[in-house]
Amino acid sequence: MTPPLKLERGALVVTVSATLTPEALNVALAHQQLFLPLEPLLPDLSLATLLARNAGGRRRLRYGPLGRYLRAALLEDANGTHVMLGGPTLKRATGYGLWRALAGGERLALGRPLSLTLSLCPLPPVRALRLLRCANLAAACRLGVRLDAAGFALSALAFARNHTGAGLLLAELEQHGAVVARQLEELDQLAQAEGAELLATPEHPWAMWEALAATQVALGSSHTLDLTLPRGHLAGFVAQAERAAQHYGSTIQLWGDAGLGALHLVVPDEGLGQTPPPDGSVQALLATIRALAQRVGGQLATELGVHAPVAPPELVAPPLLHESRASSPRRPDEGVPPAFPGLRLSPTLNSDRAACAFPTDQFRAIVGPRYLLTHPDELACYELDASIAQPAGAALAVAIPGNTAEVAALVRLAATHGIPLVCRGAGSGLAGGSVPSPGALVLALNRLDQIEIDITQQVARVGVGATTAEVQRAAETQGLCYPPDPSSQIVATIGGNLACNAGGPRCVKYGVTADYLLAVTAVLADGRVVQWGDGLIGQGCDQSLAQLLVGSEGTLAIITGATLRLIAAPRTRRTTMALFASLEAACATVEQIRAAGLVPAGMELMDGPCLAAVEAYIALGLPHDTGAMLLLLADGEPEAVHAETQHLADLAHQGGATLVESARTPADEGLLWQARRAVSIALTRLRPRRLGEDICVPVTQIAACVAHINAISTTYGLPIVVFGHAGDGNLHPNILFDPSDPDEMARLWPCAHAVFAAALAVGGTLSGEHGIGSLKRPFMAQALSGGELAAQRRIKALFDPLGLLNPGKVLP
């Protein structure tokens, strides 16, 4: 019997019951050539159970954990109230990402999932396996790390020890057929050079690992460990763990995934006898091995759900969907509920902001005279961002700290005196999120710009003042890639990207900033420094708290550093331009491309008015009757890019494109993207200013929404041009206006309100990646349900009970 599900094929999104198993879901999706890439080693686990663990299954090396695919969840709280968190769109920068915090966030007690909305993937064209035998388990781990570094299209590198003591490595590849065929030959050569023996692939190649997982869960936490290790330390740690077991007179089973550094450890009952000795040798062995793991940066993981480690107090929250008097910031003497004592602020905090004079000398002592700005001319440089937002009042000073310790000291001092804090990066935001609040201390975090690339682990450890482009360039020098690419990447900082969960054109294939966050260092409202996330694969016990800070725009905590996931740099790329006589035809083609199972690296849309403005500026020679343009980017392995480019061109022709051109050289690439890059300058020639929005709507609703926006333009007598990232429904309607014209200014915000309403009417959201800030804050009550808004306010009160962090932003 087919389970009930709501599938939007053109958007690759499905909504299903949280009690459904991934096996049942994938059986139902198979005829659509789609699947949820969550294939656990243990059968019959519900999606809700796997979400609580943020599990990833056997192919998490390629696809990551379940949290990466969650778009929305319908929850039920203890009172039976239903609350929807999130929505159907890939991008959603509308307040706090509570739905993301559900992944591995069981202790946050947000509620019981009833249904989940999930992104899907096309079934891989070809999947192939290699079973390799190495001299021992450590050798298998070393080979796995070597294969992962070689850039193969791997989905798994499972390792285990067989009955003879040899190390087995199951390498699985997924890609276009020609790519898999070529890479299998290369993999075989590399494995043989490392002394590995190629074995015949058994009928059920995963049977050994399924049995190991079942054993581990059956024994429970008293006999097992679920760890993630830095890949470079995996082989050495395996040898250390085996020596520790010998010291305790025990045997242990070790297995996992070498590409991830995932390690599962089991002390079998027979290892120390059926009944553990009274001296607690099993627990002593496990404690020793866990300590060894911590020494090399290892972390407890949640994949199999066999651990229930006691969380630090600050990681435990009461149910957040319950109505309570904590829906607004508390007085300092109220503190925080006992269930969340870790966020209790110091009793010395002063909520009377007028009671104390601004302690200039104390702030100056923290950062030094050079880095505390108080002169009005200096403060003026920090009054605005790239939006039209105006400050509600003057800042008292600007502090420019040089490290996390200085940030923490500034926050403690500000909290003691009841001084609001507003964080700022490059000031490239488009929603007024970094515009000063009255009487605030602005923290300019640009000096926190360190970048460290770990090639083996494929991560970047960065300060929030580093720009996106700097991180991308640093990764590229090592053959790696940081995919998020907002258009302001040259100046925008990682801190700003995290604050708004920025994305860019490549999000349709690669996801948003939150999908690459593995750990954060942050300063809480009382000045305490926390480190959340495992920094390895994103399955740590407090990963949900790290995710909660993404998109919070500096209102919950001040992020000072982050560990970001990197991927292998695509070997090649190719762009196809398609012109259409109508916007409807272009949008229908976008749906057909997604429905065909293609996931391009970019699908950029420009409507007719936008193209006309560009043509008037640089005269590209576009036909005058062009109603829309699509730019379609394919990247990856050469064979796959060639096939995908041809398929994209064919679908564009079938969709009624009047002209289709594919780049053949890098120079061609530049020419095809010239129109998209010229948009901003071209629009300034039509009107002096523009209000650039970034609504996000379901892919299937793009055409209807843009048609509605065109009607709004006529109604309000203001030009609106639309361009954006069609592949994920992220549109940028730009309302053009003249600030010296009182009539146009009077119509501006009613016009913007109508645009927001058009997006919400089709299931969209106020913001895909720019955030809410101060400009969109008045519309939040319409964008979120009462239950979701109450939950967000509850979170704010828990993290910032005095309301000192970026006041007047995000929440109404």
From TrEMBL:
<dbReference type="InterPro" id="IPR016166">
    <property type="entry name" value="FAD-bd_PCMH"/>
</dbReference>
<feature type="domain" description="FAD-binding PCMH-type">
    <location>
        <begin position="391"/>
        <end position="569"/>
    </location>
</feature>
<keyword id="KW-0274">FAD</keyword>
<dbReference type="Pfam" id="PF02913">
    <property type="entry name" value="FAD-oxidase_C"/>
</dbReference>
<dbReference type="InterPro" id="IPR016167">
    <property type="entry name" value="FAD-bd_PCMH_sub1"/>
</dbReference>
<dbReference type="InterPro" id="IPR016171">
    <property type="entry name" value="Vanillyl_alc_oxidase_C-sub2"/>
</dbReference>
<feature type="domain" description="FAD-binding PCMH-type">
    <location>
        <begin position="1"/>
        <end position="123"/>
    </location>
</feature>
<feature type="region of interest" description="Disordered">
    <location>
        <begin position="324"/>
        <end position="344"/>
    </location>
</feature>
<dbReference type="Pfam" id="PF01565">
    <property type="entry name" value="FAD_binding_4"/>
</dbReference>
<keyword id="KW-0560">Oxidoreductase</keyword>
<dbReference type="InterPro" id="IPR004113">
    <property type="entry name" value="FAD-bd_oxidored_4_C"/>
</dbReference>
<dbReference type="InterPro" id="IPR016169">
    <property type="entry name" value="FAD-bd_PCMH_sub2"/>
</dbReference>
<comment type="similarity">
    <text>Belongs to the FAD-binding oxidoreductase/transferase type 4 family.</text>
</comment>
<keyword id="KW-0285">Flavoprotein</keyword>
<dbReference type="InterPro" id="IPR006094">
    <property type="entry name" value="Oxid_FAD_bind_N"/>
</dbReference>
<dbReference type="GO" id="GO:0016491">
    <property type="term" value="F:oxidoreductase activity"/>
</dbReference>
<feature type="compositionally biased region" description="Basic and acidic residues">
    <location>
        <begin position="324"/>
        <end position="334"/>
    </location>
</feature>
<dbReference type="InterPro" id="IPR016164">
    <property type="entry name" value="FAD-linked_Oxase-like_C"/>
</dbReference>
<dbReference type="InterPro" id="IPR051914">
    <property type="entry name" value="FAD-linked_OxidoTrans_Type4"/>
</dbReference>
<dbReference type="GO" id="GO:0071949">
    <property type="term" value="F:FAD binding"/>
</dbReference>
<protein>
    <recommendedName>
        <fullName>FAD-binding PCMH-type domain-containing protein</fullName>
    </recommendedName>
</protein>
<dbReference type="InterPro" id="IPR036318">
    <property type="entry name" value="FAD-bd_PCMH-like_sf"/>
</dbReference>
